Prior knowledge:
By secondary structure, the protein is α+β, with helices and mostly antiparallel strands. It is built from 5 helices and 16 strands. The longest helix is centred in the C-terminal third of the chain and has 13 residues, at 219-231. The radius of gyration is 19 Å and the shape is globular. It holds the Pfam family Glyoxalase.
Amino acid sequence: MTAIAGDPQRNAEFYVETLGLRFLKKTVNHDDKHTYHFYFGDSEGTPGSNITFFPWGERGRPGQFGAGQTKVTTYFISENSLEYWLDRLEAHDIDIEGPTEQFGETVIEFDDPDGITLALVATDDAPEAKPWEESPVPNEHQLRGFHSVTLGVNDIEPTADVLTKGLGYEFEAKEDGRHRYRSATGGPGSIIDLVETERSRGQMGTGTVHHIAYKAEDTDEQEQWRDHLIDQGLRVTDIVDRVYFKSIYFREPGGVLFEIATMGPGFSVDQSQDELGTDLALPDWLESERKEIESRLPSFETPSTSPLSDD
């Protein structure tokens, strides 16, 4: 999941100090080298746990949610962690919506500092976590990867066709206008919910999600997906080298931008596991510009990993 934030310091402090995720990588947007690209996830950056941001800073224009955008990004938590998170979010002065029930599961929603809506699903089938020992959140209560995303579209059918015919999802259920699709592979991030909105196409900017990503084991599988999606009538990019993985991108008819990224080589290709997120990581083709890039990036201090409260 990749979104657009405003102030980089505020963004990183929220996801590390409040949500307890590990700050995995500080690099730059390869398409805009004077903008940071932050990665947050579990202790190892396991696929299915990573949320990333382009923090545009003071020059960023506000976005506006609308059709063709992600409405909610939802994480798993343990069934026994709900009260912990209700207390923790309240202690950090975060407004909470819920708890409510969706498809028999207990859900709470809240916004990050830029207005991106997040949710937590408390369930007894949450996947096992790879806890980050330095997190301010105790191991047993840490976020356990993505549960689902909710996409807002003007018309369910065209997007549903891409999910089912293009990406192998299966329709599972409908409840209160929410159409649930699940990947046959299962695991973290295997659910996509579609909801209809009467809003016009969303405006990209701070506080909006830029794209969502699926995983491919390697470039061979990625090429197979690319050929298949083209056969489905979609326009798909060539493979793009993102250092930590290789990516292809396509936009479905409802307007949502999707990515399919390879599993490797991973975040430790340029930093050891212990060093992840400690220094600015640049791709080889930008290394000669390091001084100029660092001089133009906003000032930033890696967030503290000390607990903010006794919760």
